[in-house]
Write a structure and sequence with these properties.
The protein is of the alpha+beta class. It folds into three domains: 60 residues, Nucleic acid-binding proteins (OB fold (Dihydrolipoamide Acetyltransferase, E2P), Beta Barrel); 64 residues, 5' to 3' exonuclease, C-terminal subdomain (DNA polymerase, domain 1), CATH 1.10.150; 56 residues, Helicase, Ruva Protein, domain 3. 51% of the residues lie in helices and 19% in strands. A hairpin with a 2-residue loop joins β4 and β5. α7 crosses α9. The longest helix is centred in the middle third of the chain and has 27 residues. The chain starts with a strand and ends with a helix.
Length: 206
C-alpha cells in the first residue's frame, strides 16, 4: 500500500497531478487548496498518500501535510462520505476550519461544500466529533515538539479542558477530569493521551 511519494510534478490539471517518481508517473488527486504547497510543474514535492483499492480501480489521494491525510481518512470513515466528497471538503476549507466547524456543530460552514447536504453534514458532526477533537490536539502536540521545553502541566490541563468544553462538557466537570487524567497517565505532557483519558472518564469507560 502506497503511503508516501516523493518525486517531480510532471502535470497539473484541476485537482489532479502526475508525480514522476524515478520515471514512473503516479496520478494523484489532491485538494485544490494544496496546489500552492505542492508547487508547479518541474518542482520536487513529497505527498502523504491515501490509497483506495477497488475491484477495478486503484486511486491515490495526496496531501502535502500529514494532518490533511488524517482528516481525509476521518471523513471517509463517515457513511455517505466517499473520497470525492472528502476531497471537496478539504478543497473548500482547511483542516483548522473543519475542526472548528465540527467542534461548534456548525453545519452552515459544512453545507457550503459542493456535494455535502444538510443530512450528511449532521451525520458527519455526530460521527467524528470526538476523533476530530483528538486530531486538533495532535496538531497542537506536534507543534509543541519544536519548542525547547515540554509544555507545562498547566498548559496541558488548559488544552484538555478547552477540548472537553468544545465537546459539550461543562467547565467544572472538564477541569475535574483533566486534573485526574494528569495524575494517572504515564506521560502528563502528552495532550492527546490526557484528552483520551479524560474523555473515557466522562463517558463512563473508566
Amino acid at each position: 500500500m502506497i503511503a508516501r511519494l516523493t518525486g517531480v510534478v510532471a502535470f497539473i490539471e484541476a485537482n489532479v497531478i502526475i508525480l514522476d517518481v524515478n520515471g514512473v508517473g503516479y496520478k494523484v488527486s489532491v485538494p485544490v487548496t494544496s496546489l500552492d504547497l505542492i508547487g508547479k510543474v518541474g518542482d520536487k514535492t513529497a505527498l502523504e498518500i491515501h490509497t483506495t483499492v477497488r475491484e477495478d480501480d486503484i486511486s491515490l489521494y495526496g496531501f502535502p501535510k500529514l494532518e490533511q491525510r488524517k482528516a481525509f481518512e476521518l471523513l471517509i470513515a463517515v457513511s455517505g462520505i466517499g473520497p470525492k466528497v472528502a476531497l471537496s471538503i478539504l478543497s473548500a476549507i482547511d483542516v483548522q476550519t473543519l475542526v472548528d466547524a465540527v467542534a461548534a456543530d456548525d453545519t452552515r460552514t459544512l453545507v457550503k461544500v459542493p456535494g455535502l447536504g444538510l443530512k450528511t453534514a449532521q451525520k458527519l458532526l455526530l460521527e467524528i466529533k470526538d476523533r476530530m477533537a483528538l486530531l486538533s490536539f495532535e496538531r497542537r502536540a506536534d507543534k509543541s515538539l519544536t519548542l525547547p521545553r515540554k509544555p507545562s502541566a498547566d498548559m496541558v490541563e488548559d488544552d484538555v479542558v478547552q477540548g472537553l468544553i468544545g465537546l459539550g462538557f461543562n467547565r467544572n466537570e472538564a477541569r475535574r477530569a483533566a486534573e485526574r487524567a494528569l495524575k494517572e497517565i504515564t506521560d502528563p505532557a502528552n495532550v492527546t493521551m490526557a484528552l483520551k483519558f479524560a474523555l473515557n472518564l466522562l463517558t463512563g469507560e473508566k
